[in-house]
Write a structure and sequence with these properties.
about 325 residues, alpha/beta, five-stranded mixed sheet, about 45% helix
Amino acid sequence: MSMDLSRRTLVQAATAALASAALPSLAQSAWPSKPIKIIVGYPAGGASDVAARIVGQKLSERLGQPVVIENRPGSAGNLGADAVAKAAPDGYTLLLGTISLSVNPSLYPKMSYDPVKDLRAIGMISSTPFLLVVNPKSPYMTVKDLLDAARATAGARSGEINYATAGNGSGSHLFTELLASTAGITLTHIPYKGAAPAMNDVLGNQVSLTFDNIITTLPLVKAGKLRALAVSTRKRSLVAPEIPTLNESGVTGFDATAWFGLFAPQGVPRDIISRLNVEMSEAVKDAHVSEKLLQLGAEPVQTTPDEFDAFFKGEVAKWRKVVQSSKIRVD
């Protein structure tokens, strides 16, 4: 009798343990059961905001729950990223991350969060090349012309080659410093308070060159107001395949892109991350979504969470080197 009772007790205990172990999985299978929020660390109307809304709408259709876009601009995206890093790890608060997320740890020594430790990569949405552009009156017809001129004038102040940027630590600054270090040349930085005044002085032929997002530069190139020397990505752009890459123009190994990707707080269960990745990838592959992203100059990309995580960590390391070697300081 006591033997039967003992066996029954063991069976009941084992059954309870199995049921307890299964509870998280059962709870996660009910996800999502309420609206999902995607935080964008930039103002409404910008490229990152528009991309989030394009993908968010399709994601909402696929998940059967509203996807709300919330703008929290400030500190080069840090305010929004900090909010997500400290949010509950339940899969209901996400971040639309940009290249700034990988650069900021090197630019801001006292950040309130660590993007590598506190955020979990879900997947990349798109990649957007920058264009290296000069004024049409410039003597630089190719990247080789620019490199030859920079090497010929090395050490001569009178022949220095200036480049315009949207300010210290901006994408245009980082991309050009990466170009200079990769090619082994010296270029002189002229920082402006924003991309518009920087571009105006290149358009006016007062500064030699600039790097800027293909979204804003390609229309000016097509209008004959700028000359494009190269794209920043290793592969040619889908929206401007006629423009060579820096890598094939003599700057071997150069590969830099502005990108959009989705992140969650660290600690979100892996099955939710996997579900988000699958649904987001399908959303990005949708013809309507892809077309809208391409209209922004953003080329749709699909990755696994692990692939995006490896890419992101590589970006953090790459831009840390550029910031440290160039001694870049934010304004």
